[in-house]
Specification:
It is built from two helices and seven strands, in the order αββαβββββ. The chain has a five-stranded mixed β-barrel with strand order 3-4-5-7-6. The chain has a two-stranded antiparallel sheet with strand order 1-2. It is 22% helix and 36% strand. By secondary structure, the chain is an alpha+beta fold.
Length: 144
């Protein structure tokens, strides 16, 4: 393999690795504070989104991660995780910045547990509705 081919291959690998973590790294800048919720009578983590992340709201946002087989009533959305199921927010102790709700444009595709997928959708931030995650991708499409 020629030197120029190796440099191109290295560049593609580097760009791909950066793209895989970029969305999650922006989420990771979110600060969370525990606040008491009277209605639920318990503490919940509420986010304070970074300026970088707020600037992305309503725009197209790419995210790669693992499909989590969480039983969602009505299957209107899926959960995408930075980590596989055994290490995820729900089971493995990862933080709330490591998951996103994904609402697909049209019919929700079928995935296998821990299937690694890449999606693109419009970013919505949620800092108050306890029924939903903090990071939501709407009108999402599967990127192949």
């Amino acid at each position: 393999m020629t030197r120029s081919c190796l440099l191109i291959l290295f560049s593609l690998i580097t760009v791909s690795a950066f793209a895989q973590t970029d969305g999650w790294s922006v989420f990771a800048k979110t600060k969370f504070d525990a606040k008491y919720n009277e209605k639920a009578a318990e503490y919940f983590l509420f986010p304070t989104f970074s300026a970088d992340l707020k600037a992305q709201e309503g725009k197209q946002f790419d995210l790669e991660g693992y499909y989590l087989p969480i039983d969602v009533e009505g299957n209107a959305y899926i959960i995408l995780s930075k980590f596989p199921y055994s290490q995820c927010f729900f089971c493995g102790g990862a933080g709330p910045e490591s998951i996103a709700e994904v609402y697909f444009k049209g019919k929700t595709p079928t995935f296998e547990p821990d299937q690694f997928i890449r999606i693109k959708g419009k970013l919505k931030l949620n800092d108050s509705d306890l029924e939903h995650g903090n990071f939501i991708l709407e009108e999402a499409v599967l990127v192949k």
